[in-house]
Amino acid sequence: MAIEYFTDDDGSFKEFSAIRIPRYQKPENFPAGDQFTESVFNNTYKWLSDAAPCFGNEKVTMLACNITLRVDTTRHVILTYKDSEEWVDLITDYIEAMIYAFKKPEIGLPCYLKEISSMILSSNEISEEQKGLLAYYIDLYKGANHQWLGYSDFEIFDAATLLPANGQDDPKDVIIMGNQQNGSGQGHLTGIYQKWLKMFPFELGCFKHDKQYFMQRFSDFICKNDERTNRYLELTFKSTKTQSEFISFLIDTTKLMLYENQSIEWAETADSSDIKSRQLALIRHTHRVKQEKLLTTFTEGEKVYIKILKEWLKNEKTFFEELTSCLPNHTEPQKTDTSTSPVLGSITELFPMSMVGKLHEYCNGKLFEMESVDLYQILNTPDQWHKTVKVKNGEITRMKLLLYLINEHLAEKDVATGHVESICMIFGFERRECLKRKKLHEDYYAKNGNYLKQIQMILTSETD
């Protein structure tokens, strides 16, 4: 027959049909009529009355009967299978099934564990070896604060950070067990993984396509290779890595991914614009790593992969700086008189200050917020600008049109596309985004004032 177990808040019973109890028959007048079940019931009733006085006598009695039934069926399974060659799995699987049945809610689980532990240790029908092993197994659960997680449980995470895995086993068939005490709790490992996702340079072209994969595989990565199936529940269980094991996995993953993406091979086929874009991305991510390390708390283990990333980013920046100096169209910046603008240093003017001043006056406060000297540096030396400029809400299309016109202006001067690409990236766009919708931009702004005409006049104006 199948065992019944408490599950609802109102104290009602539901049948747990997955658990079949071998040759067990519930005694008449249960739990009365048997010294063992009467003792268990009395102990459980007292424990519940003290733990949940708000339940009332009827509900406490119902729960005490239910827990007593679980203890009695567990005793029956132990005595039935104690002489079997598979006694360990047959008995521990059943205890695990009973513990799992307490998960929603967990009312009475400590009492169940205490009663079966006492029954095992006091029994004259179980060998000392069996007592020791079963007592040890039960102690693993006492106060362990286990989590029982199906794959569907991972849907509660922020979809922009962690996504439910696709193509996995049915959520009802795979259960992941975590233990908060050893750092393997779901929430704890999630926080560690989210920090790693932020620190790893997925924004670089060589890693862009890997990010979605890593966002979807969290439930696989946190699990150990200890999959096993409970014969009573017909569920497959996996346990999670400890904190140190999971961080070691992230360190190894970091090393492997960096090793498998060699910039030397990539640079052999890259053009100058690609190289400039990579340089800017490296600058941005180096800054992000420094800021995250400054403002976020990391364990000593996590600092290992951070150190690896910082050294790798430093090497990459050095490599691309040396590579850029060897490009055929690379020229050293000409020295100019900087007495009127000491902040700017040596800048080869593609956009004279007089032109930038007019552009700043017309666009600042509408499309973005910055000083005119900053706009001057962005337009003339974007590779030396190390942060992103936020475009104002509702002005994305207008900003793209401005960048399109800047591209047209520089095309006449035969300037490398990498220069425009760098300017576009500072404002959060790719160059191709700003070029492919020219007709749409022109049609839209033909109906909305003289914006297009005004920008064109500024960019074609002569210097003062």
Distinctive features:
464 residues; elongated; alpha+beta; four-stranded mixed β-sheet; disordered N terminus; 19 helices; two-stranded antiparallel sheet
Q: Total helix count?
A: 19
Largest β sheet strand count, sense and barrel closure = 4 strands, mixed
Structural class: alpha+beta
Distance between the termini: 97 Å
Question: What order do the strands of the largest sheet run in, or round the barrel if closed?
Answer: 3-4-6-5
* Global geometry: elongated
Specify the helix fraction band. 40-55%
Rg estimate, integer Å: 34 Å
Explain this structure to me?
With 464 residues, the chain is α+β, with helices and mostly antiparallel strands. The protein is 54% helix and 7% strand. The strands form two sheets. It has a four-stranded mixed sheet. Helix 2 runs parallel beside helix 4 and helix 11 (272-295) runs parallel beside helix 16 (417-426).
What's the SSE blueprint?
Layout: E1 2-6, E2 13-20, H1 35-51, H2 57-81, H3 87-101, H4 109-122, H5 128-139, E3 146-150, E4 174-179, H6 186-199, H7 211-216, H8 218-221, E5 228-230, E6 235-239, H9 243-260, H10 263-267, H11 272-295, H12 300-325, H13 353-363, H14 372-380, H15 396-412, H16 417-426, H17 431-435, H18 438-446, H19 451-459
Parallel strand pairs: 4-6
Antiparallel strand pairs: 1-2, 3-4, 5-6
Helix pairs in contact: 1-2, 2-3, 2-4, 4-5, 6-9, 9-12, 11-12, 11-16, 13-14, 15-16, 15-18, 15-19
